[in-house]
Specification:
Elements: H1 3-32, H2 44-47, E1 51-53, E2 58-60, E3 64-85, E4 90-95, E5 102-103, E6 108-112, H3 115-151, H4 156-188, E7 191-193, E8 198-203, E9 210-211, E10 216-233, E11 245-250, E12 257-264, E13 274-282, E14 293-310, E15 315-317, E16 320-327, E17 330-335, E18 337-342, E19 349-354, E20 361-363, E21 376-378, E22 397-398, H5 399-407
Parallel strand pairs: 1-21, 1-22
Antiparallel strand pairs: 2-20, 3-10, 3-14, 4-6, 4-9, 5-8, 6-7, 8-10, 10-13, 11-12, 11-14, 12-13, 14-19, 15-16, 16-17, 16-20, 18-19
């Protein structure tokens, strides 16, 4: 190549390199320019997006009453129930009541065919009249023999024989009277009546059936006094006492019922190691029926004026137990020491022995892991206008995305 061409190429390379350096310097110049007067560099805290909570996710703590309770479950059964049975054998002639009919004590509910028993009564009455006539005859014979004996016309043996004949006649009369009483009782037993006030729960026989002695006709239950047999864990039985009240929720019944512990079993049940307790319920609600399933809570310890938080607010992180509190518009972790667990309100609450005070605000909902130190904004409740927490900067995000970001 010629020397002139080599020199020209070198000059082109040098100019291109210089032009590239100048372009880089111009591009970097705005980034290195001084900030305008009165402005400050953005701090990491203000650059962090706020966590927005719904109004229902945050609660303000106040002193409450908590109670330690024991759950109880069982099936309702009547304290008084009976089965109307036949006392004599016979054909069931009529049944006067059906299932669901209310009956009173002594009310006639069924009858057997009494023809055979009526005939037997008439027979026993005839036997009694005959025996009574024999007694009269034996008495007159004894009187005549005694008079003759006194005059010396008959021997002592004849008098003793007359005395014995009279005593035998009296015995026969008494036996006939007893047999008549049994016959009359059998006749009366053909009519069956209710032995308690209650409601007919079941019929076992229909008219026309031939029933033996002790044949079942119907069942009657008294729904005014109910009872529940509920097992209690052996670890909790020490706090249970006769007379304690139990709030009961019965399936199919809108209102809760109040029961009372009336008996405690003396030993545990084999296999379950639980102790049965018996809860009495004075029933005034017509919708409560025998056989319904009931759940109850027995309060064994109560504390008033304490701080309690929902179970959903508590977080566990290894050996630490804490809740998220809102302090000066920021989210902080507060370690807590817990006490009684209360489930009387339907939502589990746990007593806080240490770590929180009345008036503090905490996050009650379980929103997952959150960023401690992040600014907080509380959205207004539905139907309310206005901004949320003024301490939070603009550009805040909802709690759920924030939790997802923190977990990542």
């Amino acid at each position: 190549m010629k020397p002139a061409l080599l020199i020209s190429a070198a000059v082109v390379v040098v100019l291109a390199a210089g032009g590239g350096w100048m372009l880089r310097q111009r591009a970097a110049a705005p980034a290195q320019a001084p900030a305008p007067a009165g402005s400050a560099a953005a701090s990491p805290a203000t650059a962090q997006a706020a966590i927005e909570f719904a109004a229902g996710d945050v609660i303000t703590l106040a002193p409450v009453t908590v109670a330690r309770t024991v759950p109880l479950t069982g099936t309702l059964r009547p304290v008084d129930q009976t089965v109307v049975k036949t006392k004599v054998a016979g054909e069931l002639r009529e049944v006067l009541v059906r299932e669901g009919t209310a009956v009173r004590r002594g009310q006639v509910v069924a009858r057997l065919d009494a023809t055979e028993y009526e005939v037997r009564v008439r027979e026993r009455e005839a036997n009694l009249r005959s025996a009574a006539s024999q007694v009269d005859q034996a008495r007159r014979t004894l009187e005549n023999t005694r008079q003759l004996h006194d005059k010396g016309f008959v021997s002592q043996s004849a008098l003793d024989q007359s005395q014995s004949g009279w005593e035998i006649a009296v015995g026969n009369r008494d036996a006939a009277s007893a047999q008549l009483a049994l016959a009359r009782k059998a006749l009366a037993d053909t009519v069956m009546s209710a032995s308690i006030d209650g409601v007919v729960s079941e019929r076992f026989a229909q008219a026309g059936e031939k029933l033996p002695i002790d044949g079942r006709v119907m069942a009657v239950v008294d729904l005014s006094r109910m009872e529940i047999d509920a097992p209690v864990p052996a670890a909790e039985i020490g706090a249970v006492r006769v007379g304690q009240t139990v709030e009961l929720r019965i399936e199919g019944v809108a209102r809760s019922q109040l029961g009372r512990i009336v008996r405690i079993a003396p030993s545990t049940q084999a296999g379950t190691r639980s102790v049965p307790v018996y809860i009495a319920l004075d029933n005034r609600d017509p919708s409560v029926r025998a056989g319904l399933f009931a759940q109850g809570t027995l309060s064994v310890e109560t504390r008033t004026g304490v701080i309690a938080v929902p179970q959903t607010a508590i977080r566990d992180a290894g050996a630490r137990t804490f809740v998220y509190a809102i302090v000066d518009g920021r989210l902080v972790e507060r370690e807590v020491r817990l006490g009684l667990r209360d489930e009387t309100s339907g939502t589990a609450r746990i007593e806080v022995l240490d770590g929180l005070a009345a008036g503090e605000r905490i996050v009650a909902a379980n929103l997952g892991a959150l960023r401690a130190g992040a600014p907080v904004r509380i959205a207004p409740a539905p139907g309310q206008g206005g901004p949320g927490d003024a301490s939070a900067p603009p550009g805040s995000v909802s709690a759920a995305p924030a939790a997802a970001t923190a977990s990542r």
